[in-house]
Design goal:
The complex is a heterodimer of chains A (343) and B (352). Chain A is 41% helix and 17% strand. Chain A is α/β, with parallel strands linked by helices. The chains are: A alpha/beta (343), B alpha/beta (352). At the A-B interface, strand 12, helix 8 and helix 13 of A face helix 4, helix 8, helix 9, strand 4 and helix 10 of B.
Chain lengths: 343, 352
Amino acid sequence: MPRVVLVTGVSRYLGGRMARILTEDPRISRVVGVDVVPPRMDIGGAEFVRADIRNPIISKVINAAEVDTVVHMGVIATPVQAGGRMSMKEINVIGTMQLLAACQKAESVAKLVVKSSSSIYGAGPKDPAMFTEEMEPKHTPGSGWAKDSVEVEGYVRGFARRRPDVDVTTLRFANFLGPRVDTPMSSYFSLPVVPTPLGHDARLQFIHEDDGLEAIRRATVGDHPGMFNIAGDGIISLSQAARRAGRLTMPLPVSSAGLVGAMIRRFGLADFSPEQVRFLTYGRGIDTTRMREVFGFEPQHTTPETFDSFVRGRRLNRLLPPERVEAVEEQLVSLLTGGGVSQ
Amino acid sequence: MTDARVIPIKGKDPKSSARKKPVAKKAAASKGASAGARSGGSRRSGGSAAAATAEEPEPRPAHEPLPGAEPEPVAWDRKVANALAFMRRRITGDYEVDEFGYDRELTDRVLNAPLRPIYSRWFRVETRGLENIPDEGGALVVANHSGTIALDSLMTSVALLDHHPARRQLRMLGANLVFKTPVVGDFARKSGSTLACGPDAERLLNKGELVGVWPEGFKGVGKPFSERYKLQRFGRGGFVSAALRTKSPIIPCAIVGAEETYPILANAKTLARMMGLPYFPITPTFPMLGPLGLVPLPSKWIIEFGEPIYTDGYPDDAADDPMLVFNLTDQVRETIQQTLYKLLVQRRSVFL
């Protein structure tokens, strides 16, 4: 059972909420949150330490507080959040190296929980429909967040080898979505017109922000070493998601993705790394059997429910609200049949 | 040769297996014999194939009862209401796709619709041995591949969906090129196909799906006309491993007629390389007649499903025994090849 927990990336939405959730657990005496900028939201009873995990100061924080559990949520998904791709990569990769180096030296550390991503599986036409934890990617991600995540997991594996006494839980999440969390997918589906890859319809999986946090909490307070895919049940296709969000789509040839992606990035609307474009083209599915049977976790929201909660939470201005479509349908039916259809 | 046994695909008559060759020869000599071998069983049309299928009643109305739909017969207002409800679900995204991307409602209502007249009118497909397909549970249909574009797989899926009593949806396994190609890959996934790889095949079989595989791949569809009905190499036997791991029966399937739809006279290799295709076919009509060359020749098709080869009697680690896998692969291949020869002998004409 953890007593002192260190949470990285605490100034962002998920990290902040995680810190607050952990402080509410009476068994945890102290929660220390670190980040480079002060948190904008209330992190409850957690202590905030302004420390850059990219330099060795993190080691002092861990030693001073005698941290026994480290929750690493400091991997950033978009350059917009970090102020450019260069500093994003530094925070993600160098930051993780520094953090793990500090953990390796600290005798007190007994558990490490890493929030990783299913993006490490890459995306492409040679992918199996569903990735299980032991499968290797068929198309190794070559850029952006996905590549960072691959490197982060590599360092975590190295750490686990060098400190076999530390329990390491790696959670590979499907894309986070929900009423409040900001992710590349939420900004993508908030675009006024959603550009989609022409002739492709990716399979998407989402994890609700509340479910994702519950999974991290479960890994933190429980005893579940290993690697787990975490996603809501079911699959939603990209076109279906756009329809549910009531967005207009603009199918564009994949070859033009670079150009369109650059334009969208320039306006700061959404992240379109080549890896993200591949994901939106081919999609990906992760198998959650281990999550259920070994990790013992059941998300409260399915993938379509998660998406709907995002649409409602953002009050996306739906072009064709389902109620109106239904009303038109009813009118048409009654017009054609003289109201004679028995339901 | 190894100890691979050739299990002949039976017609309907169990006795015919023992004297398969003589029957086939007799069939060539007298059409009466072949008609006799063909008739019986669960098929509605017996006797002379051409005449019977020409008069064959319309295939049963297309769709399985979908959630919310009434069984046949339906009044026209109900039909209109159903169609409108379908459109509403499409517009609002209120439908389900499975983890492979299979969109059952769309496949049933839209994607299969243009295939049905091609199946019954253009190719006048005759199916045999449908009773060899189990009503439920996982099974692996293994068939020969031919015909330049994979029409044979589409027709097999229509046969099983519309003419099998349990209306089984065939989940086909395709090459990665299929899923790389825009539009084609999209339709393939929506109609229930997925990548031909071990994990996907086993996943589908474990879910109790009927899986279709064409192990010859592009070597089969892209072979020249002169090599018609000669089975190409059967991959690495991955489909056998999948069947052994999931203890699913393998059902050999022979398709006659697809070879003549687009006879490949030559293969423009340079052009194919430039376009990133495995082959670029030159047929008597394509590319000479342009888009008109895309119309397949109206050959008469026969699809015969053979007796299942059961795999549940093998030990649990059988899939790791390469010798056994190769032998089984060979057995399936030989069975299909022999059935092809038998059907070719029975066939009276390419187009009738």
